[in-house]
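hiii so um. not sure if this is the right channel but i have a protein structure encoded as tokens and i wanna go backwards to a sequence. like what aa goes where. can anyone help
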């Protein structure tokens, strides 16, 4: 047995403690319940207030056990810690068995309501690691009159927290002689007596949980020392497989094709692949449902456990289940439970269409930057080769003299100009210049350079013909890297689009997150008509898109969908942390997902409720329209005129410089 115990001061001791025979009765009953129902609970947590006498009659047990002893007065008088989520100093003692995975709790208390609220709060706490539906057995630590007990039980069973505790059993004392006639009004004698022991028994009660009256009190069984359980009833029956018409509150929003909601229609429309699943799940486990929504999109869960939007409504216990393209968000998972994944979608962006590049760039377009870099390096290398070969040939192969002969390759400048001439297929005139020595190395080098630059120039001419035939545009935005490099502003109507991206360490992704703008629908509609920023849309598994209203056939004439995705994520339903509905919804998701119904429902919803032209406007936005042959216009050759103007300007400047320099030298010589 693993024991966690806090010893109370004697001043906090209990008055009106149960007599020993009553404690023995409770202990033996708890031992029997643990042996029958808690063997598969991994471990058992025993919570007592002022003494641990009950343990003397519960042991031995065949599984690990935690024991927590905390006076109720100590817990109620403790000051709250300075944390946003409601936390008390003694929470750590309860967290030990919770995080250890204990699925059964036996609690001896005089205030069931307080302890139920405590367990519900701890299950919701962001510090709670283990998530599961647990079994609770509350036994008395004081003698309470029947009227007070019944009023207290009624209040407990009407609490919102009880909706998340189907497996909760409360024990109370009754007199054996009044089992048939009703509940007895009796007081436990302080002294032991055989008569009292023989007449005393324990009634085990719970709440109905299912049906239209889930808070109804239900008597399960009676336990007597001599007869064990009187009716041999199942104290922890399966209440989830058939909810008998229990009302479940959902939260979702209009987000086709996942959810389609039109409450103004007659009759109102609730459809979409996620809502169709809800219909099937409700039919399978027999519950009714309604929808609440606060208009906050997905919202967020705040550090105190409350929140807004879909996630906030579930975390605040206003809704039982939330859905509408909910991703696996880390912050929400601290306070909520995620169902099994059932679908997947990815976020992408429609960006401004690439603009036609200006005509002055036509001479640059035939080669990409790498090719221009290679051409520049070849010019430098060829200039160096010509100069070195010329100098070496003149020194080693000269006509018996070591004096340099002036020729077309005597200086660096001459070699550079001859190389530039080769680049535009201007053959050097050295064959007609008989003053130039005709050495074999120079002839070979020049010949091979002519062939090399002939290939380069021919490739350039071919690229130029392509540029003049097909219009050239700016580099399109196809990926997250391109989105960051273009420093494009993009936006949406909820910052949940960036939840997953915020934790990325990629500098490109961080740039994209910084460029996101949370704006209203009116503002984004105005910007979409201009087409000067990006807009987030969602790509479904079947290839269809969720698009906000401002992404339509008109605005897509100025926009283009990005080829890549910002990110991909699986989608889930969200429930309260430790919700008893999780196992049921996960089983249903597995059946529906394996049957392929989610993808089928996606296509069906698109056909029934969404605009095919709008879908096609996004899908076909990447297909460039064939404009036919391009007529040669002045803008196509404007680059050549710019180059001519630049060359003439440079020549004029150099001419003026040479004239000034010549005049200055004449003045100096005089």
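sure thing!! here u go:
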């Amino acid at each position: 047995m693993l024991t966690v115990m806090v010893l109370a001061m004697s001043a906090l001791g209990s008055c009106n403690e149960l007599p020993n025979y009553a404690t023995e009765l409770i202990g033996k009953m708890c031992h029997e319940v643990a042996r029958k129902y808690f063997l598969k609970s991994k471990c058992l947590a025993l919570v007592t207030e002022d003494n641990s006498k009950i343990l003397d009659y519960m042991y031995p047990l065949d599984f690990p056990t935690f024991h927590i002893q905390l006076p109720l007065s100590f817990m109620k008088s403790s000051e709250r810690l300075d944390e946003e989520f409601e936390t008390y100093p003694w929470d750590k003692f309860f967290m030990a068995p919770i995080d250890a995975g204990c699925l059964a709790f036996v609690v001896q208390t005089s205030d069931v309501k307080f302890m139920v609220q405590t367990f519900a709060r701890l299950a919701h706490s962001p510090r709670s690691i283990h998530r599961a539906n647990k079994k609770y057995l509350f036994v008395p630590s004081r003698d309470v009159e029947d009227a007070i007990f019944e009023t207290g039980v009624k209040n407990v069973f009407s609490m919102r927290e009880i909706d998340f505790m189907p497996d909760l059993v409360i024990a109370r004392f009754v007199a054996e002689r009044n089992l048939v006639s009703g509940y007895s009004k009796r007081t436990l004698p302080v002294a032991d007596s055989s008569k009292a022991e023989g007449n005393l028994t324990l009634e085990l009660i719970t709440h109905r949980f299912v049906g239209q009256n889930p808070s109804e009190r239900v008597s399960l069984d009676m336990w007597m020392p001599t007869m064990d359980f009187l009716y041999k009833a199942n104290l922890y029956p399966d209440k989830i497989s058939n909810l008998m018409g229990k009302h479940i509150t959902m939260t979702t929003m209009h987000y086709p094709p996942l959810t389609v909601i039109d409450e103004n229609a007659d009759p109102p429309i609730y459809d979409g692949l996620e809502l169709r699943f809800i219909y099937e799940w409700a039919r399978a486990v027999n519950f009714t449902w309604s929808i609440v929504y606060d208009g906050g999109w997905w919202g967020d869960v705040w550090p105190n456990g409350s929140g807004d939007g879909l996630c906030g409504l579930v975390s605040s216990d206003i809704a039982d289940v939330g859905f509408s393209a909910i991703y696996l968000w880390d912050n929400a998972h601290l306070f909520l439970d995620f169902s099994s994944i059932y679908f997947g979608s990815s976020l992408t962006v429609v960006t401004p269409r690439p603009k036609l590049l200006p005509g002055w760039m036509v001479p640059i377009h035939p080669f990409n930057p790498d090719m221009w870099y290679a051409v520049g390096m070849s010019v430098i290398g060829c200039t160096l080769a010509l100069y070195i070969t010329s100098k070496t040939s003149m020194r080693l192969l000269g006509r018996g003299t070591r004096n340099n002969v002036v020729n077309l390759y005597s200086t660096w400048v001459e070699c550079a100009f001859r190389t530039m001439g080769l680049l535009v297929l201007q053959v050097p005139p050295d064959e007609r210049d008989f003053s130039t020595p005709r050495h074999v190395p120079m002839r070979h080098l020049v010949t091979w350079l002519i062939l090399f630059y002939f290939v380069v120039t021919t490739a350039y001419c071919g690229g130029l013909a392509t540029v003049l035939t097909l219009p050239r545009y700016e580099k399109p935005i196809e990926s997250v890297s391109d989105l960051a490099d273009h420093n494009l502003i993009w936006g949406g109507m909820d910052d949940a689009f960036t939840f997953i991206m915020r934790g990325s360490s990629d500098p490109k992704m961080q740039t994209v997150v910084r460029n996101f703008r949370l704006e209203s629908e009116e503002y984004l509609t105005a910007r979409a008509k201009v087409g000067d920023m990006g807009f987030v849309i969602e790509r479904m598994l079947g290839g269809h898109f969720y698009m906000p209203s401002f992404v339509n056939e008109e605005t897509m004439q100025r926009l283009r969908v990005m080829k890549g995705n910002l990110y991909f994520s699986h989608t889930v339903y969200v429930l309260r942390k430790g919700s008893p509905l999780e196992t049921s919804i996960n089983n249903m998701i597995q059946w529906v997902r394996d049957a392929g119904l989610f993808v089928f429902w996606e296509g069906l919803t698109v056909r029934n409720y969404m605009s095919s032209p709008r879908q096609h406007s996004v899908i076909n936005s990447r297909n460039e329209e064939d404009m036919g042959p391009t007529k040669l216009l002045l803008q196509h050759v404007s680059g050549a005129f710019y180059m001519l103007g630049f060359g003439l300007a440079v020549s004029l400047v150099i001419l003026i410089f040479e004239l000034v320099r010549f005049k200055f030298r004449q003045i100096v010589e005089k």
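oh and DSSP finds 20 helices and 23 strands in the chain.
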